[in-house]
Amino acid sequence: MAQIVRVRSWISAWVLAGALYLLTAAPAAAQCIMCYASAAGSGGRGIRALQIGIFVLLAPTLTILAAVVWITYRRRDSDAARTEGFEKDSHWDEEWTALAVSPGTEGPSSRH
Question: What whole-number distance in Å separates Cα of residue 94 and Cα of residue 41?
Answer without folding.
Answer: 77
